[in-house]
């Protein structure tokens, strides 16, 4: 059933995202081609140079629009799930976690698409298509970095889902409550992160203060520090995944125990 939900989500959101992305791609291609012919004539045709600057600005703003649409399209889908659409979707013999999973997967995929799409469009605008392939020994680092980015995107989506799910227990002013809950949850998360960072720094200071760095210069050798760096990144990924799991659990609890469909 999860695959069917994913198909539905990608079809419903793709009808909005893909036309917008296609239009932005055409705009960026046109701007890149026009820049190639006008960039050396701005002294003779100042108005053409000004028009080109405005066109480049519009192209850059359009990239931000695509990124915003790719992220918020699934937030809108989740918000509508808690409204009139919930009478149909939540009546299906599907567990709430599958609805959340479908929207997290779809939202993460579209956000990654928006990031890659923006990178391609920026290359079209600047004409710089250089791409560096990571070395084989750095593959593990890059793989963990990708996992961290995916976990951060999923966490940002779950943050908004939790705020919407919290507002779902009210019958009026849901949008206002969702926005307020979003900032309250974000503030609580920042305070928890600061407290965690304080204790980690305190423990790290006590640990490293007992190390004789004159005899531990091997730590700063790249080959020896790579496993330590990889382990640190895995710990960061585990902490992010733990926070994501907590927000997922709270969102599912609100959907199953406290949801009041509008």
Describe what you observe in this structure.
- This protein is mostly helical.
- The protein has 2 domains: 1-131, no CATH class; 134-262, no CATH class.
- The protein contains 7 helices and no strands.
- It has helices spanning 2-38, 46-81, 86-89, 96-126, 139-167, 174-208, 222-258.
- α2 (46-81) packs across α5 (139-167).
- The two termini are 25 Å apart.
What's the quick description here?
The chain is mainly alpha-helical and about 260 residues long. It has helices at about 1-40, 45-80, 85-90, 95-125, 140-165, 175-210, 220-260.
List keywords for this structure.
262 residues, mainly alpha, 2 domains
Per-chain topology:
Elements: H1 2-38, H2 46-81, H3 86-89, H4 96-126, H5 139-167, H6 174-208, H7 222-258
How widely separated are the two ends? 25 Å
For the biggest sheet, the summary is: none
Unreliable spans = 215-220
Which sequence of SSEs, written as H and E, runs from N to C?
A: HHHHHHH
Percent helix: over 70%
**How many domains, as an integer?**
2
Give a count of the beta strands, DSSP E runs of length 2 or more: 0
In percent, how much strand structure appears in the residues?
under 5%
Average pLDDT works out at 83
Transmembrane segments: 16-38, 50-73, 104-127, 139-167, 179-205, 225-250
Keywords: Membrane, Transmembrane, Transmembrane helix
